[in-house]
Amino acid sequence: SAAGKATTHVQGLASAAGVPVTLVAWRIADDAPALSFVRALSLTDLAGSTREALGDPRRWLQQAGAILARG
Question: Which of 10, 12, 55, 60 gets the most CB atoms within 10 Å of its CB?
Fold first, then answer.
């Protein structure tokens, strides 16, 4: 999650180093805390549903990567 321990830790390290951070997650809640991510991608949103995202995670992770690579 956007407010999870690992995410918060990586966010803190990146901020200290001046490195922008992008979040890619299965689902990002509408009320997720506004941390300073330059971009946030939800695999569920890309796939259209949680079922689709979980059914073919490789496809949606690759799609997220392609979107991020294009800027």
Answer: 60
Indicate the pTM of the whole model.
0.76
Q: Is 71 helix (H, G, I), strand (E, B) or coil?
A: coil
Give yes or no for residue 2 having a pLDDT over 70: no
Q: CB of 39 within 8 A of CB of 21?
A: no
Question: Which structure tokens are listed for 64?
Answer: 């997220």
Q: What was the pLDDT predicted at 29?
A: 77
Please give the structure tokens belonging to residue 4: 């999870």
E strand map for the chain: 22-25, 39-42
